[in-house]
Amino acid sequence: MPTTNFIDTATIWLHAGKGGDGAVSFHREKFVAAGGPDGGDGGRGGDILFVADDNLSTLMDFRYKRKYTADAGENGRGARQKGKDAEDLVIRVPRGTVLKQAETGLVVADISGDEPVVVARGGRGGWGNARFATPTRQIPRFAKPGLPGEDLHVTLELKVIADVGLIGFPNVGKSTLLSMISAARPKIANYHFTTLTPVLGVVRVAEEQSFVCADIPGLIEGAAEGVGLGHDFLRHVERCRLLLHVVDVSGSEGRDPKADFAQINHELAAFSAELARRPQIVLGNKCDIAAPEQVEEFRAFIEEQGLTFLPISAATRQGIDGLPALVYRRLQDLPPVKVFEAEYVRPDPAAAPKRPFSCRRTGDHEFTVDAPWLERILAGTNVEDYESLQYFQTQLGDSGILDELVRLGVQEDDTIKIGEYEFDYVY
Description:
This protein has helices spanning 174-181, 230-233, 257-271, 273-276, 292-303, 323-331, 372-379, 386-399, 401-407; strands at residues 9-15, 48-52, 67-69, 89-93, 97-101, 107-111, 117-120, 151-158, 164-167, 199-206, 209-215, 242-248, 280-285, 308-311, 358-363, 366-370, 415-418, 421-424. By secondary structure, it is an alpha/beta fold.
């Protein structure tokens, strides 16, 4: 089977930029004896944005590069100079790409519009020591480090944006039909699976009247379970507002047209119940080599199910000329192309406990405290400075960590581990 460079799924890791650290600095100027703290705040870390690019048609670029990291914000400086905010990282994807959280499958964003979409937010910059000056703490020798940016593991799925989807078994004439009603030139040959990627064509009906039609690679029995190409490309039918179901009414390959019709609809339903309810127009192709009785019997079968049937011949153009206008009129009564709503709820820092922590005994005279927020405070604390250490001890007391350690039976001179730091407990 021929190979193809068409890639419509990829999994990548996103790491938004870390915020810059706040600065510890003191004003120095001739004839100014005590200039006071003047450390500036750190800059914001870069966001990761996705934007639709109509010049792209595949996710091939993401096959080899899997990790995308935005720049960190600049650290603060003296003289109350705020660090520079980092540039955002802009990732371009084909229009119609849906981002899902890899672990849960929840939709994060649908990149179908023209506006950039922020998918991972950069961390906030840390405060400089100038912000911690108070009448009783006039020489703060500590600052806040910047917060980490959001990390997200996402799966990219390209779902082509088309008004109409051509569906049917392989070699029923879908590619030939698309080439006749649009300027698209899909590969056409007398063997199965000549179409290996979705092919889009713009069908012009009249002045300022047109629609986009997609030739979806041939489905076969078991497609929804991964058989053949259908499993890979059923997702591209999901946005289509109307389906043109092409059936070989002549049975030229020894298949029963009714069984073909039922099987394709079974695969649609197995893939998505919503997709199975999508409006259809059934096209009985190759009617030029079918007996009139075959055509009429199949017409009756389709119309019994409340669907529109149109006999056509892609080889002789029978029934083709009026098809675009018929499809366009039907589209006027249908909702717009589907846009997938975001399902993934970004964790809200405000809703989470302000200072979550856990304490556990890890040895006869050893306790370990797990508190990422406290580790960030420690990173900006000068433990050799009295005021800095006093500020840190205040955080331990206000957060309830000291009370929890006492409840666990901590004794004087026991070792307290917090991240990479170790302290001796003193009453």
